[in-house]
Amino acid sequence: MPDAYDPYREALVMETETIWPDEYARLPPAEQLRIATRLHETADQAANLEYVRVHTGFCRRITVTPEDIQRVSGT
């Protein structure tokens, strides 16, 4: 279940992770990196955001959705 954007946990994010559904497996690695970077820069707008507790703080995990792709691609 997705979490709501949380400024407190954001301050403690030490790691990021991007989950790519199978439908995006054919995207070139450079494009995946560009999209993932943009998604994490605008985490407050991500459709599926989770904060996972890790030893040093939190890991921000974003699962990519078609809405996210449209938003960061500007289409």
Termini gap: 27 Å
Q: Give the overall shape, derived from the CA principal axes.
A: globular
Determine the oligomeric state from the structure. Answer: single chain
Count up the domains: 1
Give helix and strand order, one letter per element, not per position: HEHEEH
Spatial arrangement of strands, main beta sheet? 1-3-2
User: Beta-strand level of the residues, as a percent range?
Assistant: 25-35%
Care to describe what's here?
There is one protein chain. By secondary structure, this protein is an alpha+beta fold. The chain has one domain. It is 33% helix and 27% strand. The protein has three helices and three strands. The protein has helices at 7-10, 29-41, 66-73; strands at 13-19, 49-54, 57-63. Strands 1-3-2 form a three-stranded mixed sheet. The longest helix is centred in the middle third of the chain and has 13 residues, at 29-41. The model has no long low-confidence stretch (mean pLDDT 94).
Fold blueprint:
Layout: H1 7-10, E1 13-19, H2 29-41, E2 49-54, E3 57-63, H3 66-73
Parallel strand pairs: 1-3
Antiparallel strand pairs: 2-3
